[in-house]
Write a structure and sequence with these properties.
Elements (H helix, E strand, L loop, with lengths): L10 H17 L18 H14 L8 H13 L4 H8 L6 H6 L4 H13 L1
């Protein structure tokens, strides 16, 4: 995972990730800007993260779940908690503000009723 663009994250998290990234370069000079790497400094393959997630879910006795579904779960929780749509859009990396409510308001109908009021607030 490279830090290639800034999404809305708490400042403490950014500091912690940058500190870890600097540590990676001291111990693994081949890390080439990656924050999380394998022992040899090469990037972690996305399919390994999916495999590891599935393994941990099964080991924990949980029902099977897709890793990507965690993204949706976090988004639903943020919107249900009335987090500002612009903030959620930034966290998801959606280029267009219309995309976020179009995807998620069909699942959270109570937000659909708030959309006209929220759009005027932008």
């Amino acid at each position: 995972m490279k830090i290639i663009h800034s999404r809305a994250r708490p400042a403490d998290t950014i500091r912690l990730l940058r500190s870890h990234q600097r540590s990676q370069h001291l111990h693994k000079p081949d890390a080439a800007g990656w924050v999380f790497t394998r022992e040899d400094g090469q990037p972690i393959r996305p399919d390994y993260l999916t495999y590891r997630f599935r393994y941990l879910v099964a080991a924990g006795g949980l029902p099977p779940e897709r890793l990507h579904n965690l993204r949706h779960s976090a988004t639903f929780r943020a919107l249900a908690a009335r987090v500002d749509l612009r903030t959620v859009q930034g966290q998801l990396g959606h280029a267009n503000i219309v995309l976020t409510p179009d995807i998620y308001t069909s699942v959270l109908p109570e937000l659909h009723h708030d959309r006209p009021r929220q759009r005027h607030a932008w």
